Amino acid sequence: MSWFQSTGLNAALGSLTESVQKATETVQQAIPAEHKDFLAKLTLNTEEMINERQNFREEARRKEEAKNRLGQLLPWETRDAEREILVEECKEAILELSKHDETFFGPYDMPMLNVQLEDDEEDDGGIVEGEEE
C-alpha cells in the first residue's frame, strides 16, 4: 500500500519526474560535444574516474569480507592446516590467562619501552639512582 493515497498526488509526482527527465535530456543535447568532456571532468564522471571509484568499492568490499572472515575465528583458531596442531595448546594458554587477576588489572611493567612503575622506586627505599644516601 502506498503512503500517498491520493491519485492526484501520485500523478503530479509522475509528471514532475517526467519533466525533470526531459529537461535533463534537453540540457545534455544542448551541450556541444567538445564541452561534454570538460563537463565530465568537472563532475568527476570521466571513464577513468568511474573506473577508479569502482576499484575503490571493490577493494573496500574485499577488505570488509576479509575482516568478517577473520572476525569469525576465535583467537586460538586458524585456517592454516600446518598450524592446526597448535590450536589446542594456544587455547589452553589463552584461557589460562583469565585465571589470573593480574591479566585484567594494570599498570604493567614495560621494560622495552623504559616504563617504570612508581612501586619500583619505593622498593629501593625511595633512593633514585645517582643520589647519595
Can you give the helix content as a percent range? 55-70%
Mean pLDDT: 78
Form type: elongated
- Helix and strand content put the structural class at mainly alpha
User: What is the number of strand segments?
Assistant: 0
- The unreliable regions are none
- The helix count comes to 5
**Rg on CA atoms, Å:** 33 Å
Beta-strand residue fraction: under 5%
User: How would a textbook summarize the main sheet?
Assistant: none
Helix/strand order, N-terminal first: HHHHH
Distance linking N and C termini: 89 Å
What would your notes on this structure say?
By secondary structure, the chain is mostly helical. It is built from five helices and no strands. The chain is elongated. The termini are far apart. The relative contact order is 0.03.
